[in-house]
Amino acid sequence: MGVRYCIASMFSVDTECPNRDLRELAAGDTTDNVIYDFYIVRELNPRVTLPFFWEIDIKTWCEVCPSLTGWILLDLAFIAQQYRNYSYISDSIVFTTAHPDQDGHYHDGLGFMLSFGDLAWVPFLYSTQCRYPAAYPVHLGWTRIAAVSAIFILGIYIFKAANNQKHTFRTQPNHPAVAKFS
What we know:
mainly alpha; 8 helices; ERG24_DHCR-like
């Protein structure tokens, strides 16, 4: 909790100084609502330069390093647990790991909400779908694997179509496909 608070507070600074021209603000700029601004924050992609290294995008680092790496490590631990307990890896555990990209990463500022999601929600909550088959393996068989795969492909299609629609609405609000949404 303390790390998330520090990350959110670190980038809730006044953007008038020192490098106002180099900082991109999240959509909506500031609302003068202290709670909202703390959760969403103004700066879109805060960066720091580490001595002897390079410039790091803090938001991308938080999403990739602790978040996705933690999720992968927890999933691998659950797969290892299943193999240790049952001497095999079931087909049900193979179909529990997938991470579609998220459009919000590009449009939200790095506030408490995004840092909490990256550091707590993603690795721990998303890995629970792999935890159950680690303890209680289920053999799906080919028909159920085909059904799960079809539903998964349909879900990816819906997810991508919705993100494409959001992108079209944000970049071309007068496009005929999204003009009625305004």
